[in-house]
Specification:
Helix content is 13%, strand content 31%. It is of the alpha+beta class. Strands 1-2-11-8-13-6-3 form a 7-stranded antiparallel β-sheet, with helices on one face. Strands 7-12-9-10 form a 4-stranded antiparallel β-sheet, with no helix packed on it. A two-stranded antiparallel ribbon has the order 4-5.
Length: 214
């Protein structure tokens, strides 16, 4: 099994479009602490494979933290303050998470970003996320901040139409993607995760996606 990140570039910030960029290694210094928080919170709110409207289980397992959590089932997609698995509020957003999201947004000119939701996704080999827009938030003036931890993944960055051909960008441990403004509703996704091993997460990838829903 190949060791992940062996051939990652040292520094490779990438401009994706107006108001959108990959910030290389932006979260690297905090990565171990972020993973420790994920593991602690997953005891309170376990990872689960949510259903799509069509009744199919998503290949990516997830839970939420913050005042609001994204929920998907046969009735549709929405934000809810209560975890449907535990019937309790979602775990609080750790201060470390809030600080990182705020600094990353500020780096692209989105000052004062205070997310009220964080989707915590867990990818295993074969997991993927099809092209989609983030449209369930009432506040679309705020950006999306996405943090990659563990195995590298191929990020798909499309256009404003579903059939626009996406560009492919490699994301590595500690990379952060920010998109907002004119790029806020760009279609994006994650290609199928390949088999490898990462010293921090083993054969997994975590993704933190910060949003301001209201």
């Amino acid at each position: 099994m190949m060791q992940a990140d062996l051939f990652a570039d040292e520094k490779r910030d990438v401009e994706l479009g107006p108001g959108a960029a990959i910030l290389s290694r932006f979260a690297l210094d905090a990565a171990d602490a972020l993973i420790a928080h994920i593991e602690r919170m997953s005891v309170l709110s376990p990872f689960r494979h949510m259903e799509t409207r069509g009744g199919k289980a998503m290949s990516v397992a997830m839970f939420n933290c913050g005042a609001w959590g994204w929920v998907s089932d046969r009735s549709g997609y929405r934000y809810d303050a209560i975890d449907p698995v535990t019937a309790l509020p979602w775990p609080d957003l750790p201060t470390l998470f809030l600080d990182l999201a705020n600094r990353a947004a500020d780096a692209l000119g989105f000052g004062g970003f205070v997310p009220d939701a964080c989707l915590v996704n867990r990818y295993v080999v074969g997991s993927r996320l099809s092209l989609h827009q983030d449209r369930d938030e009432r506040d679309r003036d705020a950006p999306i901040v996405s943090v990659s931890l563990g195995l590298p993944a191929t990020f798909l960055w499309g256009g404003h139409k579903r059939n626009d051909r996406p560009a492919r960008h490699r994301l590595f441990h500690g990379d952060v993607v920010v998109w907002g403004g004119p790029s806020r509703l760009v279609f994006h996704g994650v290609d199928e995760l390949k088999d490898a091993d990462h010293p921090s997460t083993g054969a997994m990838r975590y993704n933190l996606t910060f949003r301001k829903t209201r």
